[in-house]
Fold:
Amino acid sequence: MQLHTKRYWFLQVAGWGFVGMVMLFFARAYKVDMPLDILLKRIAIVFVSGILVTHLLRELIRWQGWMMKPVEKVVPLLLVAIVVASVTFSFLVLKGREWFDLNTPSPKNISFWTKLAGSTFDNGLFILPWVLIYYFYHFFQKSRRQQLDALKMESLIKELELRTIKAHINPHFIFNSLNSIRALVDENPQRARRAITELSNILRSSMHTEKLETVPLTNELDIVKDYLALENMRFEDRLKVEYEIDEDTLKMPVPPMMLQTLVENAIKHGISQQVNGGVVKVISDFTGDYHELVVQNTGQMDSNGNGKGFGTSSTASRLNLLYGEKAKFEIQQINGSLVEARVLIPVSL
Amino acid sequence: MRAIIIDDERLARTELKKMLLEFPELEVVDEATNAEEGISKIAKHQPDIIFLDIQMPGKTGFEMLQQLEKTPQVIFTTAYDEFALKAFEVNALDYLLKPIEPKRLSDAIHKLTASDQREVRSEGEFVNNSILSESDQVFVKDGERCWFVKLSDIRLFESVGNYAKVFFGTNKPLILKSLNALEERLDEKVFFRANRKHIINLRMIEKIEPYFNGGLLLELKGGEKIEVSRRQTVKFKEMMSL
Structure:
């Protein structure tokens, strides 16, 4: 039996048991003139009919899916159900008493239907709280479950967002690289072989970093170096690469493929637009409580496109997802010919 | 056929040149590394065909084509690029995806040589470089859509400020050229300056009606109605009576 079914039956038995106890208590307290065995039998009938009727009621509620309905629709339904259940309950109780011959000799000759009407009202007092308890118990369960679902959904969305951002590698770059490699196969087989290794590294890491939130900078830097080596193969002397890496920052955790995205942007919006090419410089250092990553490139920020592209917006949203307000990201023209993208990641101590 | 390769990446040019060795009918006479260089080399060599990369520093391949008075046959070479491919799908221009598949390359070249031969026959011997002939094509780009349009398919040029609206088929995109500049380059036997705002293709006239002041009203095959000014009417009648 499932846990909630067990709980249901426990509550049913406990609830109706309590009703029986109360009846017994009042009968004793008011010294009702009735033999004990008859009294107990009558209580037993209430107990059994109560459970039977409310259980049928529960089946009805579940079968019709009333818990899924909005409150304003379910209230009239419940009211009708309460009336019907009360009548049925009383009917069972009265018929049970006749059947087992438990009626006390009554001075007045009251008809069965009059008794039924009277006791329906009495017994309604049991059915009504039962329905209220049942309904509100499930109502709160449901809203708690919804809250949980909403939380789960939120974290799922966050994870998916991170994943799609990370998975982004420019197909244009892949095909251009493959094209260069094909030319190099004859011209410089050694370089071609190396290029295939570099491209494989990039593809592999872009696939499996999807599972990781952060990687050590040194891993990320390997990718960036492979990437820039491939771009160097394409652009040849139009691209110059410089690194300025503080050794101590190599172990720092960074979001995977983020530096890579910035470098890719530097090539796409910077170097590849320059007829005479230019420089890409990668800097990693500590400033204050922050780990600072900088990518500089020759070029001009164009007022319309730059700073709003996929690369920059994804970097900003990734940092926001991982570090909230604590991380900083900016991209700006630092002098006439250099554009700088700067990321500040808080160093957790 | 004489060809020029225009691509900013040396290796890409090398690879294409190597592939083109398979086609003896095609001679690569020069290469260019960007749009500016491309324009001057096209002017110098007057190639029959150019292989053109789309993403290049400075100007894109599209921008380069828009600057040309007339375009040779063009085969675009590009790595994956969503924007470019969208333009291609609309107008079925020829393009090759890098790395280029040998089969696709040979298909593209054969298609060109076939159409080339047909044209040589129709064009006759007369060629004057400064005047565009009817079979010359121009590259027209309007937003994301682009076309190679044969001059003979153009019905009408309409002046709109510094631009000219080009009417062909059901399209009327804008090009950045003044009507006066166009008039100088167009063959006056075919293209006629009807008034201050319009140049029409004489072969596209559907109907001629007299108009006020001794002028004429021409209806073109696309349904456009163009007024011929009085002064030009004299000239028009002269030409038509010949």
Q: What stands out?
A: Residues 102-123 of chain B form the longest helix (22 residues). Chain B touches chain A through 21 residues (CB under 8 Å). The longest strand of chain B covers residues 154-160. The radius of gyration of chain B is 20 Å.
